[in-house]
DNA sequence: CGTTCGGTTGATTCCGTTCAACGCGAGTGG
DNA sequence: CCACTCGCGTTGAACGGAATCAACCGAACG
């Protein structure tokens, strides 16, 4: 990575802190809506957020699920490109764009942080493309579970138990499939002994076997 | 956009120029390969490039088609994430990463340029997700043609004639469909009077009607 | 004139969508 | 406490669209 080792120094961190406010949102709460003027940039302190895009034809596409330490709220022509909605109880940093721009003029080095995050988000979106274009839905979903299991907060490495913060519709809208297919395919994965469903939101997953299945 | 109005000043441009070399690649030439150590960042002066990702299962996924003024060559853990291949005769700026890092330490403001490009690429990738997840292939391909028609170098606004720099396989690998489907779907679009094929690489396209079709 | 490569077309198969019904737990009010 | 509803997840049957495998076409090239 280009700036993998970058860290803000104490002064920079404080300067950024000075213009940020800490805010809280309960679960299933809209933080902002698509096409609304982009006033703030957000950083997740804890919780989870989905970015969703409303298509002209009425369907919904989820661009990303975001976790602690991720950033969101980038704009296109001054407007938010997608809506941001909390999946669960979430705490955020809220940074007003005008103040941020001023800060960056004085301390251009801070941009590295944002460049770092932009590159991270881009990689995630590329992985998203890879998932969403698997011709077989089993691979899409299996790959999605692997992706989720990278989130330490929601995956226990000992017991291999994954807790999903999103519902079936969210998964379907992320992978571009019908929500019934999500259900059915989870069953297929269970029949292949790749996962064991404990409840609708919790499952034990066999990461090794899943990886093998995907690469075939 | 966050830094839509940013421009390098004369000094900065010169400093960046000093560490860049101008190189040339003929059509269908590999610039670098996936998983190779990332030594250079590239900016396209003229021409067109595709970024392609080789999957474990042997299939190929194209991440993006890039045109003049675009940047590519970002790394993950020091390695290129995808291969870069020219579609046509292409002229590039080649910027070595070590020199770039040093330059940025002295002139951190230059980073804005890279942040700008990263955000632009991210938006393109999000549009890619939207295209690749249309349930109907006709919409995927139609949307792709619209996307291509944004490139002034390859689309004549008067005659509405689009020149494709990529072949059928590339389009298929970009949209996640079979190459035969690309052919068939072009025929469907022609039967719907949305396009008129002049040759395999050139076609006249009805952007208005296509937009309407997609939003239904 | 034969070869090769990219593009097109055809027939069959299969996978995911659609529309519909059903199950189940949580919350609510009588 | 039970009946009812509501949201969410699951299951079933029929349909349709894209993949696959195969053949074919035409232009470029030696």
TrEMBL record, chains A, B:
Superkingdom to which the source organism belongs: Bacteria
Keywords: DNA-binding, Transcription, Transcription regulation
InterPro entries referenced in this protein's UniProt entry, alphabetically: cNMP-bd_dom, cNMP-bd_dom_sf, Env_Response_Regulators, HTH_CRP, RmlC-like_jellyroll, WH-like_DNA-bd_sf, WH_DNA-bd_sf
Xref: SMART domains: cNMP, HTH_CRP
Signal peptide positions on this chain: none
Family annotation (Pfam families): cNMP_binding, HTH_Crp_2
Any one GO MF annotation of this record: DNA-binding transcription factor activity
Gene3D superfamilies the record matches: Jelly Rolls, Winged helix-like DNA-binding domain superfamily/Winged helix DNA-binding domain
The protein's name: Transcriptional regulator FixK
Species classification: Bacteria, Pseudomonadati, Pseudomonadota, Alphaproteobacteria, Acetobacterales
């Amino acid at each position: 990575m280009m700036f993998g080792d970058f860290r803000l120094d104490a002064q920079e961190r404080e300067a950024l802190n000075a213009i940020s406010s800490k805010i809280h949102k309960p679960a299933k709460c809209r933080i902002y809506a698509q096409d609304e003027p982009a006033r703030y940039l957000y950083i997740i302190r804890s919780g989870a957020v989905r970015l969703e895009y409303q298509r002209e034809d009425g369907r919904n596409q989820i661009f990303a699920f975001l976790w602690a330490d991720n950033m969101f709220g980038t704009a296109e022509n001054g407007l938010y490109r997608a809506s941001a909605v909390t999946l669960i109880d979430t705490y955020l940093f809220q940074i007003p764009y005008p103040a941020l721009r001023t800060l960056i003029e004085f301390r251009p080095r801070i941009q590295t942080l944002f460049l770092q995050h932009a590159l991270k988000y881009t990689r995630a979106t590329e992985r998203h493309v890879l998932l969403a274009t698997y011709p077989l839905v089993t691979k899409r979903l299996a790959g999605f579970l692997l992706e989720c299991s990278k989130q330490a907060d929601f995956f226990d490495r000992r017991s291999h138990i994954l807790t999903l913060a999103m519902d079936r519709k969210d998964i379907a809208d992320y992978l571009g499939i019908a929500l019934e297919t999500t259900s059915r395919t989870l069953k297929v994965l269970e029949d292949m002994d790749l996962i064991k469903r404990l409840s609708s939101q919790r499952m034990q997953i066999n990461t090794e076997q899943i990886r093998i299945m995907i690469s075939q």
